[in-house]
Design brief:
The chain has 344 residues and is of the alpha/beta class. It folds into 3 domains: 169 residues, CofD-like domains (Rossmann fold), CATH 3.40.50; 97 residues, no CATH class; 37 residues, no CATH class. The protein contains 14 helices and 10 strands. The strands form 2 sheets. It has a 7-stranded parallel β-sheet with strand order 3-2-1-7-8-9-10, sandwiched between helices. The protein has a 3-stranded antiparallel β-sheet with strand order 5-4-6. Helix 12 packs parallel to helix 13. The longest helix is centred in the C-terminal third of the chain and has 14 residues. The N and C termini lie far apart (50 Å). One of its GO terms (molecular function) is LPPG:FO 2-phospho-L-lactate transferase activity. Keywords: Cytoplasm. It holds the Pfam family CofD. It is found in: Cytoplasm. It comes from Crystallibacter crystallopoietes.
């Protein structure tokens, strides 16, 4: 067997406009944007509907294994990218095995402070490919090829991003104080008795991934959410080049709502408030459909009015797992997306 001694060649990008294909025919070309578990849920559903699938992933994570690699090596945080790849892995024994390898985390022995503790194998593999290739997109393509991924995974930006937010905090006695919190991991854990009232990206003019912009331009459908609203969903609207691409594309746009509204970073917010935040950060961006589970919406009239402000109609569908847990069920979510695609 020949050994590869030189630089790894770049894996060709999948062609979204193949010779003889007609845009809009099945399978649809879909771009899903987000990060973390929310994006993974969307990808697990979408991979059942199309092979023409691109994930555009946030690169602002600064906690855990990703944060350590980012600080120590100056690379993009690989964790959310790894999770997206694992969600797209092939159903064969090969794909499932490599998915488990990518997701495996090292655990040091008790009372041992090991340098590998809590590092995900997939994070180390992805960073290795980046160092060998000098190209984050090519590295992700090689990782995807190893897993037999049904689609491609791209970073939203070509440099690591930092999310900074102003949080209104209620102190003992009811006095309110505005505190600036820097970092995705800290902002996501803002906690109860707080209200995030402003977020921004640093740097605010970071270059978007060129391949991500191209994928959005040629897509039939673009799906934003679900995911942590301020730290996984909104960052895509705060990056100027990416926001402009989302506004310009001729693709139809879906905004997928979360199943839990009152989280640590969205304390006290209703479903309608979530939509108002989207409109605040991207007033020029319009959606075609807002997908929501009816069990999560309190005031439907207010929610539908907020959706209309985004130019969208509301589609209600039971997309959560049975038992009332705030987790999207891939089959139910796939059914909802299928019905929306078919209805156009």
């Amino acid at each position: 067997m020949a050994l590869l001694t030189g630089p790894l060649p770049r894996v060709p990008l999948p062609q979204t406009d193949r010779p003889g294909s007609v845009r809009g025919q099945n399978p649809p070309t879909v771009v899903a944007l987000g990060g973390g578990h929310g994006l993974s849920a969307s990808l697990a559903a979408l991979r059942l509907l199309t092979t023409e699938l691109t994930a555009v992933v946030t690169v602002a994570d600064d906690g855990g294994s990703s944060g350590r690699l980012r600080r120590e090596l100056g690379v993009l945080p690989p964790g959310d990218l790894r999770m997206a790849l694992a969600s797209l892995c092939d159903d064969t024994e090969w794909g499932q095995t490599w998915r488990d390898v990518m997701q495996h985390r090292f655990k040091s022995l008790d009372n041992v402070e090991g340098s590998l503790d809590n590092h995900a194998v997939g994070n180390l593999l992805i960073v290795t490919l980046w160092e060998l290739l000098g190209d984050p997109v090519a590295g992700l393509q090689w990782a995807g090829a190893l897993l037999g991924a049904r689609g491609q995974v791209l970073p939203m930006a070509t440099v690591p991003l930092t999310i900074e937010g102003d949080v209104l905090t209620e102190e003992p006695g009811g006095r309110l104080r505005n505190v600036t919190i820097s970092g995705q991991s800290r902002l996501a854990e803002a906690g109860r008795n707080t209200h995030v009232n402003d977020v921004r990206l640093i740097p605010d003019d970071a270059p978007a991934c060129t391949e991500a912009l191209q994928a959005i331009e040629t897509a039939d459908w673009v799906i934003l959410g679900p995911g942590s609203w301020y730290t996984s969903v909104l960052p895509h609207l705060m990056l100027p080049q990416l926001r402009d691409a989302l506004c310009r594309t001729s693709a139809r746009r879906i905004l997928t709502m979360n199943l839990a509204m009152d989280t640590k970073e969205t304390s006290g917010m209703t479903a309608a408030d979530h939509l108002s935040v989207v409109q605040r950060y991207a007033p020029e961006l319009k959606f075609d459909v807002v997908l929501a589970d009816p069990d999560t919406i309190g005031d439907r009239a207010r929610f539908e009015a907020a959706a209309a402000g985004l130019g969208a109609r509301v589609v209600f569908g039971r997309v959560g797992t049975p038992g009332g847990h705030a987790v999207h069920d891939p089959l139910r979510l796939a059914t909802a997306y299928h019905d929306i695609f078919a209805g156009q």
